[in-house]
Amino acid sequence: MTPPISLDAALAFQVLDDGGLSAPVPGHFSNGPSSMAPEKGFPFGGLLAALCAQSMRQGLALTAPLRTLSVQYLSAARFGEQVAFRPRLLRGGRNVLYAAVEAEQDGRMTHHATGTYGLDAAPAPLTPLHAPPPPLDKLDPKATIRGPMSPHFAQHVEYRFDGGPNILGGNEGKPVIERTWMRMADGRPLDEVGLCYLLDALYPPAWTASKTPAAMTTVDLRIDILADPTPQTAPDGWAFFEFRMLDLGLGWTVDEAIAWGADGTPLALSRQRRKLLPQRPA
Fold first, then answer.
1. What span, in angstroms and rounded, lies between the C-alpha atoms of 193 and 197?
2. How many domains does the structure of the chain reveal?
3. How many whole angstroms separate alpha carbon 158 and alpha carbon 181?
4. Which has the higher per-residue pLDDT, 128 or 54?
5. Distance separating alpha carbons of residues 131 and 249, to the nearest angstrom
6. Which of 135, 166, 167, 174 sits 20 to 30 Å CA-CA off 246?
7. Is the predicted pLDDT of residue 124 greater than 70, yes or no?
């Protein structure tokens, strides 16, 4: 099914009178189940991360590649209403630039982000190659996330799971890891905002460790882009992702995700901290 609004359309900002930028959060970017109204969930954190990255690049006319994005989710934005993004340059330089953006809706701050931008050096990188991902054409195209309980944001993503999906207890007694090829459903070339979206475009890995997963909400998301995707490393927009739970306890869970190119080149990694929500009495 073709998404009603593409990621590129969602990133099309309006310019505010004070120089800031604004964009709404459409309901089909909700993290709630697709069988329910978007308001049963919250705006998808990966889209908000992409909006933060794009607002800093566009609002500050940055040309250097994004290398690190760190987002703090302060309160949930409301669907359909404009979110204002006000980026500012913290420090410029020839090699590294630091920027920040504050996002608010009706005077209430919803999230805050910082970005580090810098040009790559001329010497060849020495990053080791990961073992090449499993061949995309050997995986079942039906191994995906679809159905009434899939989140709204998943309709914008095409998945090819390697041994999954394992949501709702499929990884009980095993390492809490999900591995899948992913790309945007419209086939757009993979870039920095696509990586920001896809590195969050899966259910929490902790939800594969139990048949009765706990409710949780993202507090912090950090993304490090190691190499800009190219048509060679991300053919037709595809990259291979591994999501892993690092810790669960004391009211928190911490996960990491790694994006690999088709040849095993590491493209990006992220670390996400989520707060477990208190269980309400029945």
1. 6
2. 1
3. 8
4. 54
5. 32
6. 135
7. no
| 56 within some domain | yes
* Residue 73 belongs to some domain of the structure: yes
Q: How far apart are CA 268 and CA 252, in angstroms?
A: 24
> Which of the pair, 140 or 49, is modelled with greater confidence?
49
Residue 2 lies in a domain: no
Query: 281 Cβ partners below 8 Å, 6+ apart?
Result: none
- Residue 174 contacts by C-beta under 8 Å, 6 or more apart in sequence? none
The pLDDT-based confidence of 126 (bands split at 50, 70, 90) is low
Please give the distance of CA 100 from its chain centroid, rounded to a whole number. 18
Q: Please give the single-letter amino acid code of residue 15.
A: V
With a pLDDT cut of 90, the percent of the chain lying above it is 68
Cβ neighbours around 266 below 10 Å, total: 18
Question: What is the pTM for the complete model shown?
Answer: 0.91
Would residue 36 count as lying in a domain? yes
Instruction: State which residues form the domain around 253.
Output: 7-120+129-276
CATH number at residue 272: 2.40.160.210
